[in-house]
Fold:
Amino acid sequence: MNACRIAVLLALCPALADAHLIETGLGPVYDGITHFALTPEDLLPAIALAVFAGLNGKAHARRAIFVLPMAWLLGGVAGVWVAMAVPDSLAWLPLLMMGGLVAADPRLSPRATTAIAAVLGIVLGYANGCAMAQAGAGMRGVAGVAAGVFVIATLAFAGAAALQAGWMRIALRVAGSWIAAGGLLLLGWSLR
Structure:
């Protein structure tokens, strides 16, 4: 019984708690990769962009597949240099916008999709660059984030471009609506 009480007491007194994993102990590049993969506010908009571009066709996906990681890298470099963080209360915006685009499934030109990829990459890359600067991972952490963005987005682009059957397209659009709903949930929390 005493051991149970001690365990509960220790569980209630954590020494340090972080909301986002930035330092893994594997080095700054892997810190960047894991930060991207474990941060839904970054991962879900990137996947939503990949699905959106894939649903619009291979030309859209081919352009966005290279623009998104490069813009993320440029935004990350700017974030490391400036190191003035974006307010966390704006994390809902990329989720809502990208999820809404997937759910609505508008037909845009490849240039418009490329511009959306560039803006999303710069904005989220900047926020990641600020986080990497605060964690001490710096430019190598930003490079890890950009590599993670490239790999995960490439897989999502390929999957969405291959799933063009009617019911699969509807399933991807439903997934986009869930991403947008997550953005609305974050908006509600930020207003609270």
User: Anything to note?
Assistant: Helices lie at 2-11, 28-37, 40-56, 58-82, 92-104, 110-135, 138-162, 166-191. The mean pLDDT is 85.
